[in-house]
Amino acid sequence: MYFTRLPDHTQPGFDEALHFNKFRKHNIIFHAESKDSHCEDHVGCLSVKTVLSGEETYGVDGRQLVIRPGQFLLLNNDQRYSCRISSEEKVRCLSIFFKNEFAAVVLSDILHREEMLLDDPAVGGGSMPEFFQTLRQITPDMGMQLSGLIRALETTGYNEAMTDEYLVFLLRCLVGVHRSDVKSVSQVKAVKASTRKEVYKRLCIAREVLHASHGENIDLGKIGAQAGLSVPQLVRQFKSVFHTTPYQYLTDIRLKQSAELLRHTDKPVQDIAWSCGFEDAGAFSRAFRAVYGMPPTRFRAVR
């Protein structure tokens, strides 16, 4: 099923049970624009959330995750969450919900050897891997599938067979995400597997804090406190898993955001520097030049 408008849960007579029942029977895609949308409590199936413009906030397990273009959030089956759009400009959002049976069969096909599937096509069909629910960067392969799906929907309209083909390949991308997480967990410096998994979850929270507050003056103590890690543990494990320090990661976020603002807005360079968390235009210019090989003013001129 394909929808180009978000449901209005506050509308009189809105049937919550009927609406959510659709998610158990169909793969569902929402590709819509909105300035104001709220859902305070939803229990969904395996799903991918992203935005093509603007930002959308999700509440998951007591955390607030702000999704911006180029990022996505992957939610497990039966995960409770809230979502909110509140913006002066229209936010273009994309949500893809995978029907449980469809996702289980596709993931089984990916995770089992060909000879096993020939002997028993339904092997493992009832189980799915558990994904870490954290903000992620859209990979080139995933971006290609998403843009191809959107282009097909906009040009030829919804067709179930066509859409399901794209979703098969999108699920393959998600298995790659899961395997990457497994590798990252193994890089946590701890003896017990359960400890490595827990530390990785907390590092993901720290990373989310950096994304959500990249324009603010935050310190390592506050980041560590929100993630449940001491400052030495945060710095040491963050470097081990993500191959950069929290401060370096934050600087990279700020520079990417500033580059986007330079490309797509006419805001003064000084204002961009402040909004992205740099103390002054001079420090911003030096950091920008070190990464992009030119000062912000020239970058804007050749955009």
Question: What report would you give on this structure?
Answer:
The chain has three domains: 2-183, Sandwich (Jelly Rolls), CATH 2.60.120; 192-243; 249-301, Arc Repressor Mutant, subunit A (Orthogonal Bundle). 50% of the residues lie in helices and 21% in strands. The protein has helices at 16-21, 100-111, 114-119, 140-156, 160-186, 193-212, 220-227, 231-242, 246-264, 269-275, 281-292, 296-301, and strands at residues 2-3, 28-44, 47-53, 56-60, 63-67, 71-75, 79-97, 135-137. Strands 1, 2, 3, 4, 5, 6, 7 and 8 form an eight-stranded mixed sheet that branches. A hairpin with a 2-residue loop joins β4 and β5. The longest helix is centred in the middle third of the chain and has 27 residues, at 160-186. The chain is globular and about 55 Å long.
How would you concisely characterize the structure shown here?
The chain is an alpha+beta fold and 303 residues long. The chain has helices at 16-21, 100-111, 114-119, 140-156, 160-186, 193-212, 220-227, 231-242, 246-264, 269-275, 281-292, 296-301; strands spanning 2-3, 28-44, 47-53, 56-60, 63-67, 71-75, 79-97, 135-137. It has three domains: 2-183, Jelly Rolls; 192-243; 249-301, Arc Repressor Mutant, subunit A, CATH 1.10.10.
